[in-house]
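Quick log. Single chain, no ligands specified.
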Amino acid sequence: MPRFNVHAGAVGDEVLGSDVERSIDIRIGPQLRLYDPALRPGPASCPDWLDLSGGKVGHCTLPIGGLAFPIIVTPGAGPGTFFVRMDGTLVNMSQAETALAGSVFSRYGIRAVVTCGSPRVRRFTAGQHRTCTLRGRGLPHTIQFKTEAGGSRFTMFSLPHVKPLAVMRIGPYLTLHDEGRPVILSGATLDEIVRRSITPKRPPDPSSPRWSVRCPDRADLSKNRHATCVVTTSRGTMLYDAWIAGGTFHVLIRRGLSDSESIRVTAEHFYEYQLAAIGRARRVSVDCGPKRMIPIDRSTKLLCTIDAGDGVRPLTITYPDFPSHVRYLVGAVRSPGLRG
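-> predicted structure:
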């Protein structure tokens, strides 16, 4: 979840608390509901006046799930302006539990249940160490993790006395590669490596798409060599490259297929989020033409149209950093109200 940084303003070095409360409710509230529709933030609370003179910082609170989350108020770039942001990152613990259980499954191949107790919504800041309860065959009773990137990303600590799958199954191939010797894998072995690399980091769910991986019958991953595997799910087909470098296996998507409907809906959600962030929450309509499968790589350019209630404009969707990012461009230049 992103750190919120919202611009608002009032005249003078002292800011009226009710103005700040209104800015928090109008701007941060909708963003929280976009992050998790189950969240119901209450009205913000600030002192009657906040003194922001000389770079001073003000403090308010926003009630969420029965807890008061701190909001920081800082002076803006010009006279009479201010910024508000959450102090840390709000995390739904159900999502954290699922992510941690998926990490255990991905790294150790063991299905686990992670329970972090109450409260179910918590504030995280970078560098915090947390402990949750862990249940699974052959696993310790607790799992420890550290929060990073402002509290929105977790790093799981290694589980004591439990060997990772990589050590047990692919260690010998990495040793051969380090020694400069030929590295030949069977198709079945590479299938498993690719499958575990791309499977969503959570235990198998009957509702999730089924993965089908097809690699060459014989894969040569010796120095400067790679193999290409075809991955098919109920949502499309993708090509993945696999190679060894730096003492580890690498699996990276080279090209994919996505249905135009998914691309359209994602673009609508993106711009509705952007508009909510600047206090202009409204419905957005994106049209990318007839439903079809779209090949996705760094050269893809999809021409659509977008209407945010102020007229239909061209929308260009590209993937210059595929598979990491999608870029949106409205009209000939980036719009200050709609920007990708």
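The two ends are 17 Å apart (CA to CA).
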